What we know:
- By secondary structure, this protein is mainly β.
- Among the domains are: 5-230, TonB-dependent receptor, plug domain (Ferric Hydroxamate Uptake Protein, Chain A, domain 1), CATH 2.170.130.10; 236-324 and 374-446, no CATH class; 693-727, no CATH class.
Amino acid sequence: MKKARLSNFRYTAAPLALGLALISTPSFAQDEAAEEDSGEAIIVTGSRIARPNLDSNSPVSVVTGDQTVANADITLDTFLNTLPGVNPAGTTTSNNPGNGGQSNIDLRGLGSNRNLVLINGRRPMVSASNQTVDLNTIPQGLIERIDVTTGGAGAAYGADAIAGVVNMILKDDFEGLDLRAAYTNSIPETDAREYQFSGTIGGNFADGRGNIAFSAEYSKRQSLIKAQRAFASQATSTTGTFPTGRYTQSGTNPISQTAINTLFAGYGVSAAQAPNGTLLGFNSDGSLYGVGIFNSPNNVSNFRYAADSAANPNLNFFPDFYSYNFDIVNILVLPMERKSAFLTAHYEINPSFDFFMQGGFTEYTSSSALAPTPVGTGIVNTTSTASGLNARSALVAPGGRITGLVAPMSNPFLPADLRTLLLTRTGDDANLTGVGAAEGVRIGYRFLPTGLREQVFDNEVLQGLVGLRGDISDNWRYEAYYSWGRTTIDQEARGNVNVQRVQELLEAADGGASLCAGGFNPFGIQPLSQACVDYVDEVGRTKTTFTQKVAQGYVSGDLMELPGGPLGVVLGVESRNFRYAFDPGALFGPIAGFNTSTPDLGTNSFFDIFGEIRAPIMDTLELSLTARHSKSDFNDIQNGVDGTPSKDFAYGGTLSWSPLDSVRLRASYQHSVRAPNFGELFSGGGSFPQIFDPCSATTDFRTSGGAAARALCVATGVGNSTADSFAATPGGQAFITVTGNPDLKPESSDTFTVGGVFTAGGFTGS
């Protein structure tokens, strides 16, 4: 069957769904009425107490497996992000902020690490330091339905269920052969193509007491570059580090403004338009240009690059001021190639012994990319080598380290016009050796020749589970299982720059020509030989490994009869053990590009006791209670940190009342507890989020806020004399550093839910 469908940003040109039932048709979920007529007990997400129908005391959204593949989506998050209660942020296609190609779900916008993903009510393998589950490991072809509850389920399922639970219910009696092929592309360009081929085969045996099913999938997605879409080709944020190179002026040893005015007058630029010493960039012909100032008469001056040159000015701001358009080379949609296989089976020896198992293998590659590496200029007043980006130089005063680039006045590539200005310096930068004109030249530079900062991810996930369940008596059942999983993420980081080697090139008497062919000229966009690229380029390779072991057992049954029916109870225990290991490889020292890291090795363990009670007080009134006691412990082996064991309680209750057959009212309370994960305990990193200053004189806040807005801006740091003319550069970026904290304690949440279900004439609303 051929079907055309427009969905979000893409057009499904040929989603071909070919179902071949060569043995018999696959079986799908029965409707609720059929379930009720069968009299068979059903376990609903949010509880382990079996019910005679699909009614749930927690708000549960249910979608079928067929719905998840109707649009030929190759990842589950694409469909799940359309559901109410799901925040579609940071998906498998996202480049920056990136997610390494992983597919996650974020309930209520609280973060994917605060909701729990289950397969048949059991925890699958995690795939990140925040212990989230990658939906790429879930077999689409075997999904019967997906239950999503956002009512809080920490007491029922344990840590990480603060925002809710996403439960993937797999087919347990699939019989037949189902083959599918899907193709999608965007319009009208017909790019960003996606392909998927999948097959599921299964059958019953032993007179229907057993079933085995196997599913395999292959998916591929082409990348999309921002330059391919007009709406994304220009960056909305700015950068101060240019591929043309830029002079960074010292506040205590500035260039003479008179000399700048004279030089730019020779370029045909008036004194009113001439830049100051903090706004100088380099043209490739040896002249200088003025960077310009946002919302000021002082615009870009003497800029000698074409708009479509490698200088690539950001046309959202140029020629008001110059900023490099780093977005045009970035990825809009990440590429991905995935192979997966999944096996599920069960065999009922007798009603007391029903053996079940499942196993999965997923391998996929993805890559993300950022603009070429920027290296600014700064000085760290320390002799420590702990920070990732630092280089020692004879140009730096004792006790300091360069966090960027400094060229000596003897550098042979130093343009004559810039040298003329530098010779007017008469002050002293305490961070540099020498004084006045003898001091080095601070330079900011973006390394276009080393290419994009590209991360290539190779993810491999193995998981297996075996268990036993059955009847203890007419009214009591048990279930016990053990699962093991391992996730390995090999990452290759390309486009890094060894700052120490660049500094060696700058300080060499011949400009580095003796170290690599041609040397390094940072003044303007100049050619860099492959030998020099190889000299400064650094490729980093890291490996992250997660191991997870889960054992769980519980019994459930009817304890006694109440006026509304049997009192159902569940009692169980669960043990979870995690191991996290990170090997940063050889990417240490004075490296710019991607953040360097240190090795890490840690463990985290949990032991839980949980219970549930379902009390039908009368035919129309029901009370459900859940409770879980959890003891957690972690150990940061690499750094010798032993965390203090934590003991916490999660609990909840739900009251359901049906005054009429067509009306059902419910109210619930859930107290959930989440222990900190490996990323929060041990890992760190940096980021550069985009920022906007609301105190700029032309913002809506200032123009509509009047005197009160002005007073607030003055009180928070804008000078009173400049408050009416202050204009911060739009789309700036701030550097944020995040570090792990082994002293973190578990966090908790309280969820209150009130709702109702109304049924009339075959219509149900809630």
